[in-house]
Write a structure and sequence with these properties.
By secondary structure, this protein is an alpha+beta fold. It has one domain. The chain is built from 1 helix and 5 strands. The strands form 2 sheets. A 3-stranded antiparallel beta sheet has the order 1-2-3. Strands 4-5 form a two-stranded antiparallel ribbon. Strand 4 and strand 5 form a beta hairpin. The longest helix is centred in the last third of the chain and has 10 residues. The protein starts with a strand and ends with a helix. Bound molecules: zinc ion.
């Protein structure tokens, strides 16, 4: 698991939900934005590429 999506329906400010990277088994609590499809977000710590598609899958499943 490298990406989680949290959606609190009562949180109007973040109605679209929030993404967090799971870095080496630990949740990084820095909120991520969906990156452009041609420029994946690369984690400087573990080196993984988080692609826009991963975010969309996480949105549907809760995690990737
Ligand atoms: Zn990482």
């Amino acid at each position: 698991m490298v990406l989680i999506y949290e959606n609190d329906p009562l949180d109007n400010e973040h109605a679209r939900g929030r993404f967090y990277h799971v870095c080496r088994g630990q949740v990084d609590r820095t909120e991520l934005q969906i990156p452009p499809t041609d420029r994946p977000h690369e984690c400087p710590r573990c080196g993984i590429d988080l692609e826009a598609e991963d975010f969309f899958v996480a949105m549907q499943k809760g995690s990737v």
